[in-house]
Amino acid sequence: MLTLENGLPIKTFLRSHIYTWLNNERVPIRVPATQYVSLVQRWILGKIHDNRAFPTDSPTGNTTSAYASGGLNTPGANTPIAMGPTTSNAPLSTLAGHDWVGKKGGFPENFFGDVKTSFRQIFRLYAHLYHSHWIDPFWHMSTGSNSSGWTDLNSCFVHFISVAKLFGLLSEKDMEPMQPLIDIWIANGSIPADAVNGACTIVPSQ
């Protein structure tokens, strides 16, 4: 739960939502907002800097194309024979072995889940900023000759939501606390139509 430093709960923008953090025993606990932000930053940075979660080296392994008669380097297989037709209705990814988002790039099976979790946690931070810090400091930062502040916050959030919706990284339930504001940006075209329609939504293999 996002709370004030005195432990009072903070409700997110426009709708009543309570966010908790899982401790080491996987038990939801209430933490102050400042601690929640630090925990999110630490978790996401830990994932990004973990080469097992986000590998930076080129994937390794056997790149030889496999055929029913053997590989391209199989003696006497100068013209590999493709496997015959099958009556199976299973997708090709299943016939070729278990598949997942990022597999070809060397990413682990839980990669897509980690990305979605990261987006969900970042969304919660935005919801907190809009609910508890819209007036102070963001609105006050935009007065006078300073044009930054809430306009910068809006710009960052619009880009964030556009990417999240375009690739299906946040569910409708995830976005519910900020949906009224998101609907305004959809209506005025700030969030592109392709993003609204989830044109590049990633559907993990089953």
Keywords:
206 residues; mainly alpha; two-stranded parallel ribbon; two-stranded antiparallel sheet; 7 helices; 6% strand; globular; disordered N terminus
| CA-atom Rg in angstroms | 23 Å
Q: Identify low-pLDDT runs.
A: 1-14, 62-71
Q: What structural class do helix, strand and pairing data support?
A: mainly alpha
Mean of residue pLDDT values: 76
User: Order of helices and strands, N to C?
Assistant: EEEEHEEHHHHHH
Taken as a percent bin, the fraction of beta residues is 5-15%
Distance between the termini: 33 Å
Order of strands in the sheet with the most strands? 1-4
Q: Number of helix segments?
A: 7
Number of strands: 6
Word description of this protein:
There is one protein chain. The chain has helices spanning 33-48, 92-95, 111-141, 150-166, 172-175, 179-187, 193-196; strands at 2-3, 21-22, 28-29, 31-32, 66-67, 70-71. It has 206 residues and is mainly alpha-helical. The strands form three sheets. It has a two-stranded parallel sheet with strand order 1-4. The longest helix has 31 residues, at 111-141.
